[in-house]
Amino acid sequence: MTLSVCYFMEREKPIRFPSQQIRIATENFTNFLGSGGFGSVYKGVFSNGTLVAVKVLRGTSDEN
Ligand SMILES: Nc1ncnc2c1ncn2[C@@H]1O[C@H](COP(=O)(O)OP(=O)(O)OP(=O)(O)O)[C@@H](O)[C@H]1O
């Protein structure tokens, strides 16, 4: 029981992607989907085929 809860929580941890990988997936933020209160959203595809929506938070830079 405890183990399965831990496993679940482990799976729920945020995944950190290098900015380079995000840039490649979004083809350098070419496919603009729309913008919301916190920033712009871009379409991306990871090399394994996973389709993602990437939000660039307003007021942040891509330095990190
Ligand atoms: N998964 C998605 N697929 C397609 N388009 C998306 C997706 N997520 C966001 N968008 C597009 O980006 C726009 C902004 O999305 P966002 O999630 O920022 O909206 P919001 O909830 O209004 O904003 P916020 O959460 O910043 O207040 C949407 O209106 C939509 O056009």
UniProtKB/TrEMBL annotation:
UniProt cross-references to PROSITE patterns, sorted A to Z: PROTEIN_KINASE_ATP, PROTEIN_KINASE_DOM
Recorded topology in the membrane: Single-pass membrane protein
Predominant localisation class: membrane
Domain Protein kinase: 27-64
Subcellular location: Membrane
Domain of life: Eukaryota
Keyword Lipid metabolism: no
Keywords for the protein's UniProt record, in alphabetical order: ATP-binding, Membrane, Nucleotide-binding, Signal, Transferase, Transmembrane, Transmembrane helix
InterPro entries the UniProt entry points to: Kinase-like_dom_sf (IPR011009), Prot_kinase_dom (IPR000719), Protein_kinase_ATP_BS (IPR017441)
UniProt enzyme class: transferase
GO molecular function list: ATP binding; protein kinase activity
GO CC terms, sorted: membrane
Residues holding ATP: 55
Name of the protein this chain belongs to: Putative transferase
Species assigned in the record: Rosa chinensis (China rose)
Lineage of the species this protein comes from: Eukaryota, Viridiplantae, Streptophyta, Embryophyta, Tracheophyta
